[in-house]
Amino acid sequence: MPTAQQWIDSLGLEPHVEGGYFRRTYQADHRPTVRTPAGERFAVTAIHYLLTHWSPIGHWHLNRSDILHFHHHGDPITYHLLHPDGRYESAVLGQDPGRGHLLTLAVPGGVWKASHLTAGDHGLISEAVVPGFDYADMTLGRVEDLLRRFPDHEELVRRYCHPA
Fold this sequence. Notes:
Elements: H1 4-11, E1 14-15, E2 21-27, E3 34-36, E4 39-41, E5 45-52, E6 57-63, E7 66-74, E8 77-82, E9 88-93, E10 104-107, E11 112-117, E12 122-130, E13 138-140, H2 143-149, H3 154-160
Antiparallel strand pairs: 1-2, 2-5, 3-4, 5-12, 6-11, 6-13, 7-10, 7-12, 8-9, 8-11
């Protein structure tokens, strides 16, 4: 079974600002762009994303675009979602449907998201972003801002916010 470092090396992954490692694998540059309130975007983009035992957290962040997550290899990854109405939900991406694992998770744009490696060495996923990802469309969570929006979820907010 490949290790986290072997995936990083073989896929050419780099550290991600949210935590973990990534590399863009696709952008629909052969299609017309999509007009969004924030500007023109590719119709779709995709990345590989890896959480490891030494970088196990994808910190709170908000994307404007919808994102489909697909589990490929390794250990399960738990997702924490905070919806604009304050509702919390969680899901586990992994390879064991008998334990409630999902192979695919859709997260609508406008939902705050954090993730963590549930256990083990690593979890490898890919993400398809529609309309395509642009850093201008992503907001990293800050403790003060998220606590104002989601006061009922203080422990989760503090646990998964990126260190200042």
